[in-house]
Specification:
CATH superfamily of the largest domain: Gcn5-related N-acetyltransferase (GNAT)
Mean pLDDT: 78
CATH architecture of the largest domain: 3-Layer(aba) Sandwich
Radius of gyration: 20 Å
Largest sheet: 8 strands, mixed
CATH class of the largest domain: Alpha Beta
Length: 274
């Protein structure tokens, strides 16, 4: 599962700049090249969520709110300007440390996951598991030799990712499933992308050959676009297989190869045949 839809900003809420700053930024934006940019922005808004996901955008990226034009310069390349929000995001990526999760981290991991359980569609659980249960799940992942990672930002757990067996029967042993969850207070800082990239790299160092993403909610364009950027391909959609928060919910299946994929026999089979 992938929980990327919920979240806001570190230490509370995202602070909008002063009104004066908005007008200054808006003026710079319009002077740079007004009409073509506005037409482009309007065209993006007219695409449906799935087409936006195909180009790596989500609905929130192109929705015209009272502040949206302020952030439009982040997509320009001609002037060399980088908007303050984009500079902050690049800094966030540099300050994010991906490391193995420890027992101490699991209390914050449990809090992050509980929010997604109670408020989101990324997971089909409806009752948040206890800390003891989360510790047990982590132990099971590690016992299987799979990675369980956290994103550390300024000494705090900002999100986590891990891999599990895709199915328990033995013929599935070379296929794993990814899970990524980000704190509700840290949306838009690319923490999910950093976690997923690290999880793929760690998994490729092992014997696994395929990774499957089971994404709750077919409207979760951000998660679908992120997986596309990480090399996943759309496999299909299971329609209305869940019912949560008063609505029927789809799951989207995506998949990517790990390492040599199916281009060579599994290492354990080669060793057996010697």
């Amino acid at each position: 599962m992938f929980g990327q839809q919920d979240s806001v900003v570190r230490n509370g809420s995202r602070h909008c700049p002063a009104i004066g700053g908005v007008f200054v930024e808006l003026g710079r934006y319009l002077v740079a090249s007004p009409h073509p940019r506005i037409r482009c922005w309007q065209a993006l808004r007219e695409l449906d969520d799935r087409l936006l996901a195909d180009v790596g955008l989500s609905r929130s990226d192109v929705e015209m709110s009272r502040w949206s034009l302020q952030y439009a310069p982040t997509r320009r390349r001609s002037t060399g300007m980088t908007a303050p929000d984009e500079r902050g995001r690049m800094s966030d990526v540099k300050d994010t440390v991906i490391r193995d999760a420890t027992e101490v981290d699991m209390a914050e991991v449990q809090r992050i996951y509980a929010h997604h359980v109670l408020n989101g569609l990324a997971t089909f659980e409806e009752v948040p598991p206890t800390l003891d249960e989360m510790l047990r799940r982590r132990d099971a992942v590690l016992t299987a030799g799979l990675p369980y990672l956290v994103a550390d930002v300024d000494g705090c757990v900002a999100g986590y990712s891990y891999a599990t067996a895709y199915r328990p029967r033995p013929a599935y042993r070379h296929t794993i499933e990814d899970s990524v969850y980000v704190s509700e207070t840290l949306r838009g800082r690319r923490i999910g992308a950093t976690l997923l990239k690290a999880l793929i790299e760690r998994s490729e160092a092992g014997p696994w050959r395929q990774m499957v993403a089971v994404i709750g909610n077919s409207g979760n364009a951000g998660s679908i676009a992120l997986h596309r950027r990480m090399g996943f391909e759309m496999v299909g959609t299971l329609r209305s297989v869940g019912f949560k928060l008063g609505q029927w919910v789809d799951t989207v299946l995506m998949q990517r190869s790990l390492g040599r994929g199916d281009g060579a026999l599994p290492s354990d089979l080669k060793e057996t045949s010697r």
